[in-house]
Amino acid sequence: MGGDRGAGRERGAAAVEFALVAPLLLLLIFGIISYGVMLSFRQSLSQAAAEGARAAAVAPATPTDADVYGAAAQAARAVENALGDGYACADGVLRKGDSTVGTCVIATPATCTATSCPYQVSLTYDYADHPLVPQLPLVPMPGVLSYTSAAEGNA
After folding, report:
1. pLDDT digits 0-9 by tens, 130-141
2. Residue numbers in the chain where pLDDT is lower than 50
3. Ranges for the TadE-like domain (predicted)?
4. Which of 43, 88, 109, 112 could form a disulfide with 95 if both were Cys (CB 3.0 to 4.6 A apart)?
């Protein structure tokens, strides 16, 4: 009989323990998801910068219409295509829809030598002000995501 009385007292212990552990478990799970989304987007920035630099490097050295076929225009178009989903790269600004979310700097060389014609694309995304998923308390996230890529073009 004494054993039955002790078992009755522990009847709700599992529910109480779960109630204590569940918030920490959920914070861990959503923290992993948040970091996964952020790292995936940073990889997209990396890919977009690399695609932009490559596009600038292979653009015609003397385009007939620099606004359409020039290195900077080709790089901006490649960045936009790589990021997709409403992103625009123009005048040093990275936009998503109508919001300015960062910078998009395309550095084209003023002159090229016979051996070097470097193009560089730098993308910066203000993650603190424009997070892709809601910020969670106690889960530190970076304030800025950035990536720079360079490519040698045809002289």
Report:
1. 999 988 888 889
2. 1
3. 12-54
4. 88
